[in-house]
Amino acid sequence: MTVVGWLQILVILAAVVAFAMPLGAFMSKVFQGERNVLTPVLGPVERSFHRLAGIDPGKEQSWLGYALAMLAFNAAGFLILYLLLRAQGLLPFNPQGFAGLSPDLAFNTAVSFVTNTNWQAYGGETTMSHLSQMAGLTVQNFLSAATGIALAVALVRAFARSGAQTVGNFFTDVIRATLYVLLPLAVVTGLAQVAMGTPQTLEASATVETLEGGEQTLALGPVASQIAIKQIGTNGGGFFNVNAAHPYENPSPLSNALTIWQMLVVSIALVFAFGRLIGDKRQAVAILSVMALLLVAGIGVAYWAEAAGTPILASAGLDPAGGNMEGKEVRFGLAASAMFAAVTTGLSDGAVNSMHGSFTPLGGMVPMVLIMLGEILPGGVGAGLYGMLLIAIITVFVAGLMVGRTPEYLGKKIEAKEMKMAILAILILPTAILGFSAVSAVLPAALSGLGNAGPHGLSEIYYAYSSATGNNGSAFGGLAANSPWWNTTLGLAMLLGRFAYIVPMMAIAGSLVAKPKLAPSAGTFPTHGPLFAGLLAGIILILGGLQFFPALALGPIAEQVQMLGGKTF
Amino acid sequence: MAAKAATSTFQPDLVGRATVDAFKKLNPAALMRSPVIFVTEIVAMVVTILFVRDVVAGNPLLFTGQIMAWLWFTVLFANFAEAIAEGRGRAQAASLRQARTDTVAKRLADRTDRSSVRPISALDLKIGDHVLVETGDLVPGDGEIVEGIASVNEAAVTGESAPVIREAGGDRSAVTGGTTVVSDWLIVRITAAPGSSFLDRMIALVEGAERQKTPNELALTILLVGMTLIFLIAVVTLTGLSAYAGAAVSVPILIALLVTLIPTTIGGLLSAIGIAGMDRLIRHNVLAMSGKAVEASGDVDTLLLDKTGTITFGNRMASEFVAVEGMSAVEMAEIAVEASLADETAEGRSILVLARDRFGIALPDAPRPGATFIPFSAATRLSGVDLTSKTIRKGSIDAIRKFVRETAGHEVAEPRAFTQAVERIARSGGTPLGLAENGRFIGVIHLKDVVKPDIKERFAELRRMGIRTVMVTGDNPVTAAAIASEAGVDDFIAEATPQDKLNYIRNEQRQGRLVAMCGDGTNDAPALAQADVGVAMQTGTQAAREAGNMVDLDSDPTKLIEIVGIGKQLLMTRGSLTTFSIANDVAKYFAIIPALFIAAIPELDVLNVMGLSTPESAILSAVIFNALVIVALIPLALTGVPYRALDAATVLRRNLLVYGLGGILVPFIGIKLIDVVVSFLSLA
User: Which of B233, B295, B659 sits opposite A406 (nearest CB)?
Assistant: First the structure.
């Protein structure tokens, strides 16, 4: 590890927080329907959308109405994308003449983009027409991100309101999230990426003559427009197969820094918006400090593990000071690769600028664990915030009684109904990740897709199901996932991880919004300050650790201890 | 505090019965109420079946046999914890049943004949019975006066300590149970049957069979079920994952892993904690109508406290002698003592105490011979003494003026000092008591409410815990403000009508606060019902008792503060043991995980941080620790975690350190010690 490496990491994080604060203030205005900086320009557009869709933004929905609207909206999005992918061979903007996708791949891909996962069982430049990329995938990049933001805002409203029945209007929230937040950020940062060298064209490819005099075909397309929103909306689905490791998606260390910034900024801003919407910024600071603490710890462990390298490299005569550079781009180096890996998994983004499967076992365990901890550090846009609030509810319930009051969070009593729903939601992660992994570990049809044997093979399985259930989308590498078994089960894992989590979460919102908001006193369990932050971090680690420690012991931990003994797989 | 001493945790007769009950509770149908222990019992059965199979097949038995035994012990220990808590609760309730038949009513066989008294327990009175109530008696129940006139101290109902006149006929004919007749006599027709079902309800709350889970207990059970499911998934999926790794694990060992991970500690102690909380209430002579009320009392933000009896002593006391011109305070005090020597009222006694303490006046043992004591009567509103040479009276100012005029036989000019003192005392919120001898004014005795000496610290304590105190009084705002500032309450309601109380409670609740109050009058009923915690006095009216959710058998309004403490301690105990239970799992993983896989992946020995001797010993030690910790924590579950009145942040820091950090560290040490013993005895 080097000072410059850490400096890089800290400067990017500081730049995120510096922009996220005003963005959070702006978002809190947007979602309260207040006048904001962009109202003069976008107000008329918003009104015309509302008019066209026949939506009255003043007419709010109950939690159930909100959840049903969300489900219907996403079901429609899935259906349209699925049909588009199946039929892409018959449709225009297909200069390479790609055929339609197979049913299981189309299912997997449509689910993947609707759920904000962006798991890619396909190679973009060899599978997708420009139309599929632009009208299919990019559209869902916006809408799945807007859905996440809307849901988080609905839950925050449930905490902010007292004795109310409604949590907002889903369609209005989606329109506002897209129009005021995602679109402007994507346009501005997309243009910045074009300036840094990312292509934006409808041409299929360019043919160039290499230095050796050979001929090379370079795949091109509307790259910048998709990868801007892929990061802003923490989708992570790259235009090219190798994602942000590709020189056109991520040409330079500067564009790499911008890409990391893009991933983080909306999720962090949402936490600030949360503080404003509930009228208590200290609560947001507590949540944010937990996210920052664990994320930076993750970056630190990954960076340390990669910088330490492996004894095998050293015994092969390589300079141990170089660390483990396998699977990493030389233009980014160890620090930026480790940071990218931790951020993209802490965030449920899923873009990669290095191959996580090539990390040391411990370094590769970091992104895996960050997903297993629930995609809340800081988590995908919206999903991270509502996931974190759910864990905060559980934390308050476990420890809150210790101050001699029945548990309450942000002035709302946490009772049997909330616990039931929170448990339903957090059960999804171990059920899908461990359940599918255990079956795949003994199923020949699944095992044939593995790239490696031994504990590393097990890590490939864990990572795939974690990535799908956590709606992350990044791949460990090594796994050939485009087969009916993997496409189908990963698709199911993505659906479970998204919607089976959201519905109980919205039920909690419905229950909380109806409760009176209690006034805090000196006797109230304090949910701000370092004590609560430490407690929340502890519960996240213990809860996640308890679920996955046995599995990890057989996977990356076994691989690490065996690697130290010189054994590889 | 009228708390009875706690029964010692492991009294021999209680232990005997609890042990029997622990086996009875093995019935799975009953055990389903406690899901974590239910799961433990199911897997214990599975291991038993495997053990029997091993016996038949002639396989080695030692390891599986021990695992099986300790799993059953885990279930039995949990059952024992519940049984012993129930036993203690039952013992308290039984002693309560004997103690409560205290008030004796003078029932009249013939309603017109005052000599036909047949004493009877107040609780056995029926509607329509006629009772005689004489000076100093408690009115045994709500009723209607059919004959007589008397002054009645209704402080227990109204909070106002000055006696009021009650008489047959008209709108002042109702008397309230628990009020005291301070002069004269009444014949009362009982109009409300004293309820006695509270006790039965209370017994139901401490006995397992009928015990309903309280709301927070229910929510906590859901969390525990969730944790159990999570570990069930983790353990079941481990079969597939370990098969892949070539490290297949036997079923008894997987079950051992499951049982050590699921929250058996809190799962086993949860109902014992709840029962013990109820038991603690009973020991304070408080009956709760529901477990919910006890939990709510821990949540209280605002306490509405009656002034009289809680903040001040029930009666007003003499605090100053103001003599008329030409007379010293000592001389006046001597006259006042003369008039009060045989006065049994609290005011009268307080005059003697003041005279002795202030002026060192020696109090004779008996009144002077030939003295005739005139007790206070509602009609004259005077009391005093008739001596051979003189007549002394003390009483209300109007009555004294009348007495002076009548004794002198003409208008007597009132001394200026007398008039001024009366005005000053009234302005300050006190009660002026006139003193006269024969036909002349002697002086004014200042009677005032005296704030209890330790109450200010109690309120400061409550404030630290974030609880606001509000004084409720029938006094005028001037008096109320004076006492409020002296006692250090946060707010007060003066000239409080029942409607005022109700409005105050509603307003607090609108601002998101939970309110507790105590009361006993029928007109308190709406406020008692509206309050989140309403404590009715046992001496109160039936309506009040039905509106509240707790009854205080001692009818001591100060109890409210203790009740809040009991509620908080109950919740703290629950939370602390939950945290402890979950924190324990960290060490158990480090004991069991390396033991599971070490054969297939020897390098995993680095996770064996405790240096446990063998894989079998590691697993067995974790299981034994898991069972023994339940027994070790029974005393804590029953007595509750140490409770101090501190703010939430301090309490949290302290409890987190003890039960969170302690919960992580203790099992590392405990499992290691057990491992040493197990390997020393060659058990595994």
Answer: B295
Last residue of a domain, one of B489, B519, B553: B553
User: B538 pLDDT exceeds 70?
Assistant: no
Average pLDDT in chain B: 85
Q: Is the four-CA dihedral A232, A238, A244, A249 of positive or negative sign?
A: negative
For chain A, say whether B238 makes contact (Cβ under 8 Å): yes
CA B97 vs. chain centroid, Å, equals 17
Q: What angle do CA B536, B541, B544 make, to 5 degrees?
A: 45
Q: From the CA of B616, how many Å to the nearest CA of chain A?
A: 17
Q: Do A546 and B647 touch (CB under 8 A)?
A: no
Q: Which domain holds residue A399?
A: 283-564
User: B483: domain CATH number?
Assistant: 3.40.50.1000
Token code pair at residue A61: 């929905």
Span B40-86, pLDDT tens digits: 999 999 999 999 999 999 888 999 999 999 999 999 999 999 999 88
Report the alpha-carbon distance of residue A440 to residue A406 in Å, rounded.
43
Give the mutation candidate from B244, B574, B579, B657 for the A interface (greatest A CB count, under 10 A): B244
For testing the chain A interface, which of B299, B303, B563, B661 should be mutated: the one with the most A CBs within 10 Å?
Answer: B299
Residues of chain A in contact with residue B263, where contact means CB-CB under 8 angstroms, are none
pLDDT value at residue A266: 96
Is the separation of the CB atoms in B541 and B142 below 8 Å?
yes
Q: Which residue positions of B form the known binding site?
A: 343, 347, 376-383, 394, 520, 524
Q: Which one is catalytic: B137, B279, B306, B532? A: B306
Cα separation of A492 and A489, whole Å? 5
Write down the pLDDT at residue A294: 96
Q: Which residues pair with B533 in a beta bridge?
A: B516
Cβ-based contacts of A442 with chain B (< 8 Å): 240, 243-244
Region A236-262 average pLDDT = 92
CA–CA distance from B129 to each of B146, B191, B538 (Å)? Answer: 12, 8, 20
- Are B322 and B365 in the same domain? yes
Q: What is the distance in angstroms between the Cα of B239 and the nearest Cα belonging to chain A?
A: 7
Q: Which domain holds residue B36?
A: 12-90+205-284+564-681
Residue of A nearest to B584 (CA): A542
**Nearest residue in chain B measured CA to CA from A411:** B512
Q: Centre a 10 Å sphere on the Cβ of residue A116 and count the other Cβ atoms it contains.
A: 33
Question: Chain B 611-650, CB below 8 Å of chain A: which residues?
Answer: 643, 647-649
Q: Is residue A127 part of a domain?
A: yes
Mean pLDDT, residues B386-398 taken together: 88
Considering the domain boundaries, does residue A530 fall inside one? yes
Could you give the angle at the alpha carbon of A340 between the alpha carbons of A336 and A344, nearest 5°? 175
Q: Looking at mean pLDDT, say which of A149-158, B188-197, B470-479, B643-652 comes out highest.
A: A149-158
Tell me the pLDDT band of B101, cut-offs 50, 70 and 90: very low
CB contact under 8 A, A561 and B604: yes
Residues A474, A466: Cα–Cα separation, whole Å: 10
* pLDDT recorded at residue A45: 95
Tokens coding B59: 């396989």
What residues 435-494 of chain A have any CB closer than 8 A to a CB of chain B?
435, 437-439, 441-442, 455, 457-458
- Condensed to tens digits (0 to 9), the pLDDT of residues A424-479 reads 999 999 999 999 999 999 999 999 999 888 999 999 999 999 999 999 999 888 89
Average pLDDT over residues B109-133: 84
- Does A11 fall in a domain? no
Whether residues B238 and A549 touch (CB distance < 8 A) is answered with no
Q: What is the pLDDT of residue B159?
A: 46
Return left, alpha or beta for A190; rule: phi > 0 is left, psi -120 to 50 is alpha, else beta.
alpha
Tell me whether residue B306 is one of the annotated catalytic residues: yes
Q: pLDDT (tens digit, 9 = 90+) per residue, A58-110?
A: 899 999 999 999 999 999 999 999 999 999 999 998 888 899 999 999 999 99
- For residues B299 and B329, state if they share a domain: no
- pLDDT by residue (tens digit) across B184-230? 889 988 876 654 445 555 666 666 556 778 889 999 999 999 999 99
Does A522 sit within 8 Å of B465, measured CB to CB?
yes
Same-domain status, A302 and A339:
yes
